[in-house]
Design a protein that fits this description.
- The protein is mainly beta.
- Helix content is 2%, strand content 51%.
- The chain is built from 2 helices and 41 strands.
- Strands 1, 3, 6, 7, 34, 35, 36 and 40 form an 8-stranded mixed β-sheet that branches. Strands 10-11-15-16-14-13-12 form a 7-stranded mixed β-sheet, with no helix packed on it. Strands 2, 4, 5, 8, 39 and 41 form a 6-stranded antiparallel β-sheet that branches.
- It is globular.
- The N terminus is likely disordered.
Length: 482
């Protein structure tokens, strides 16, 4: 007989903390429990709980499994989107089969090239072929170029329809986009690395920028390259580089500090909150300076000098920036640049269970200056970068997890009936009306057909089926009773 835990009147058996995991462990093989997470460096591992006992019979309702939010489940792919999309990519998933990318229009059409009429499933507008693979011009895409970002639309993340300009030359430093109430909010820096501005565009297909509302956030710090995400209450959250503590010129124009500001409408009235990321080292009290090449040139009316001051910190600091955001079942993620003290740049990500709380570093991937963006499309998560490689992931859940639950019906301290072994996994879908809020269906087993009993036990088996560095890491298990 395994060890037992006595409980009276409990409706939920939750295993979450390190102490709870240790108390709930009956047997385990190839499994390590550290910092409240059960995982293994081997391909397979197993866990058997102790018995959860009750003085009176209970009925089990469900068991729910949650893995670590570390999200290392990424696979490299060829660069996403149109082959001639240049500069930092922006992704915006408006809904199923309605995916957008924004970037500068690059590549020249051969002089003798003439587009031919074409059709593409899901598009009911006149299209013509282009010299670029899997790309077509819609009427908006034939409008004059304005020197800024352009819009491309896809139904499958493979074929792209070019709809033309969405920003202008002065607003070409576009950084991020959101969607609300049928309108796209496209943010840009003006000048480069300063003060997020915003267009609100009701028609991304017309080949013309939307309404330019100008400065959205009068940022008191230098640096910008913001990411934006709406919370479930509809408020707009900007995550912005803050260069106050670092010589940004020597750190890829990134910083250990990220400002967090929130607005009710995404256009103005942004209020600064506590930093989203703060990995500053110790301030010395001394001040240094650096220069930026664009400020005076692009906006001389506002900036009279390219010289900026910063507070010197020691030891040398890691830097992050070019932020992008997404939320999965209320777990928020920030993706961005990672410029370590000693090493190569790569794409990194942070996470927090609350948009208003500090984010913690998860991991990094790739090599190069990423300036990334993230979206959910075609049932997967896509990470687009400026690097030679982009990435795709089925989500933070890592395969494979099989589980079963047993019941002691006669109160003799032994399991009399088990459920079948069942593979459990999370599933994801985009929340209607939101571009970056992804709903999550928990990994669970319905136990209502299991007979009532005096004690219950659960087991799970972890199998690492991926070729990437991810592995199943069980963070929390909750067994619920009637």
């Amino acid at each position: 007989m395994l060890g037992a835990i006595a409980s009276v009147g409990a409706e939920e058996w939750a295993i979450d903390s390190q102490a709870e995991w240790e108390a709930a462990t009956g047997k385990k093989q190839q499994l390590t429990i550290e910092s409240g997470v059960a995982s293994s460096s081997e391909k397979k591992a197993t866990f058997s709980s102790v018995l959860k006992q009750f003085s009176e019979k209970r009925s089990a309702k469900s068991i729910v499994f949650a893995q670590s939010p570390l999200w290392q489940n990424w696979e490299p792919i060829e660069n996403l989107g149109p082959s001639n999309l240049g500069d930092a990519p922006i992704l915006l998933s408006i809904g199923p089969d309605n995916y957008w990318m924004f970037g500068r229009y690059g590549g020249k059409k051969p002089k003798n090239f003439k587009g031919e009429p074409a059709t593409l499933e899901g598009f009911n507008v006149p299209l013509v072929t282009t010299p670029f693979p899997n790309q077509f011009d819609a009427p908006g895409g034939l409008q004059p170029r304005l020197g800024g970002y352009h819009a491309w639309q896809s139904r499958d993340m493979v074929h792209w329809v070019h709809h033309g300009p969405v920003t202008e030359k002065f607003s070409a430093w576009s950084t991020t986009a959101e969607y609300a109430d049928g309108k796209a909010y496209i943010y840009y820096d003006f000048p480069n690395d300063q003060d997020p501005h915003v267009y609100v565009d009701e028609d991304l297909t017309d080949g013309r920028p939307g309404v330019n509302h100008g400065m959205a956030f009068d940022d008191p710090s230098h640096g910008s390259d913001c990411g934006v995400i709406r919370d479930l209450d509809g408020k707009f959250h900007l995550i912005v580089e803050n260069w106050d503590p670092i010589n940004a010129q020597r750190h890829s124009w990134d910083s250990p500090l990220a400002t967090h500001a929130v607005s009710p409408n995404g256009i103005d009235s942004f209020k600064i909150l506590d930093p989203a990321v703060d990995l500053r080292t110790k301030p010395t009290g001394e001040t240094g300076t650096y220069k930026h090449p664009h400020w005076v040139k692009e906006h001389p009316e506002r900036f009279k000098t390219n010289v900026a001051e910063y507070e010197i910190h020691e030891p040398e600091q890691e830097a992050f920036g070019d932020w992008a955001a997404i939320s999965i079942g209320g777990q928020y993620y920030l993706f961005g640049d990672y410029d370590p003290v000693d090493g190569h740049m790569s794409a990194c990500w942070f996470t927090s269970s609350d948009i208003n709380q500090p984010f913690t570093f998860c991991d990094h991937i790739g090599q190069g200056h990423p300036d990334p963006d993230i979206c959910f499309a075609e049932g997967q998560f896509y990470l687009a970068t400026q690097m030679k490689t982009d990435y795709v992931s089925p989500g933070p859940w890592v395969e494979s997890v099989e589980a079963r639950v047993g019941v002691d019906t006669d109160n003799d301290g032994a399991i009399d009936q088990w459920t079948d072994w069942t593979e459990v996994r999370e599933t994801y879908r985009q929340r209607e009306g939101f571009a970056k809020q992804i709903d999550k269906t928990a990994a669970s087993i319905d136990l209502e057909k299991l007979p009532p009993g005096h004690a219950f036990q659960f087991e799970f088996r972890l199998t690492d089926t991926t070729e990437n560095k991810s592995r199943p890491m069980m963070d929390r298990v909750v067994l619920t009773f009637e």
